[in-house]
Amino acid sequence: MLIFILAVFACIVAHEFGHVLVARAFGVTTPDITLYPFGGVARLNTIPQEPVQEFLIAIAGPAVNIVIMAGLLMLAGATLTASALSHEQADLASRLATTNLVLAVFNLIPAFPMDGGRVLRAALSTRFGFEHATSLAATVGHWIALALAVIGLFVNPMLIVIAVFILFAATAELQATSVRAFSKDLPAERAMITEFATLPAAATIADAVQKFLHTSQKVIPIIAESGSVAGVLEIGDVVRALHAQQDESRPVADIMYSEIPTLSSRAKLDQAFRLLQEKAVPAVAIVDDDARLAGLVTLETLGEMLLLHDVSASVFDGMRSHSRQEGGVRPIERRQDARHVASTR
């Protein structure tokens, strides 16, 4: 049994590396792979806008499983039977061949984040464009999630878990695509936080505790002596340091995010969004011509702008028009509130 589980795990890893290798052939990097009991997800730094590229990257994973299955059928004398999955007495080759067929078929379900969802979007993109295709594919994914949940009530509760996973993944993919679409021509400074407290690089953990207590911020920029951005500190970093009983006189430079990407105030908002995703950082620093901090862009601020955009797209059209006419706009002053700043590490 253990050998079979390890072999299935190896097949799932091979499936994900199929995506990785094809993605790299198109210049798309994959910073990490997340494995789940029913498969895995290779996170791409960027989503290819060309339908053919996305199709080939998506189909590569199931293709690996089909190749493994074919190899076992031809070289190991395996057979494909439904009983091979439920009976431990079946030979290992047959069980693995059948499992790889199931993995390939399951991953081709046309719903995000499965490969089938990306294959569907790639096919729809050739006619409807990337954004509309994403919306259509996400809608299909929502209906499939609903169907799996209903079936799970009568057949297998595990299907309900998968349905919830698909529902959230499809929604997240749709939101990410929406952010990329509306931020394409919008200046980054229009979404940045401009009113915030900072800490000097020499500040201690105790100083950070007081700053977090007396402000509603969840992210605090750390400023070097030169006035440039040295990094940012999340409240979670301070909490982890206190839980680990670290010395409160320890400098915040030891626990902050030091590799924070920076952008010029004239950069476009979609650049900031890409950096937030690619670097998995809590914020992107917007700097002026003297490399001094002018503001911060976080996933939370992008989420707020997306919400406002959905309510009144005409306001954002005015922003874009004003930016094109004058070559720049004065940032909207925003105060960071007490809501959680979405970030991953």
What keyword list fits this structure?
CBS-domain, 3 domains, three-stranded mixed β-sheet, 8 strands, elongated
Q: Tell me the overall shape.
A: elongated
- Mind summarizing the main beta sheet? 3 strands, mixed
- Overall pLDDT score: 79
Element string (H = helix, E = strand): HEEHHHHHHEHEEHEHEEHH
Number of helices: 12
Give start-end ranges of low-pLDDT stretches: 324-345
Structural class: mainly alpha
CATH homologous superfamily label of the largest domain:
CBS-domain
Report what the structure shows.
By secondary structure, this protein is mainly alpha-helical. It has 3 domains: 1-108, no CATH class; 110-182, no CATH class; 188-326, CBS-domain. The protein is 55% helix and 10% strand. The protein is built from 12 helices and 8 strands. It has helices spanning 2-25, 51-75, 83-86, 92-107, 115-128, 130-154, 158-182, 205-214, 235-243, 269-279, 299-311, 313-326, and strands spanning 32-36, 39-43, 199-200, 219-223, 229-234, 262-264, 284-287, 293-297. The strands form 3 sheets. The protein has a 3-stranded mixed beta sheet with strand order 3-4-5. A 3-stranded mixed beta sheet has the order 6-7-8. Helix 6 runs antiparallel to helix 7 (158-182). The radius of gyration is 24 Å and the shape is elongated. Residues 324-345 have low confidence and may be disordered.
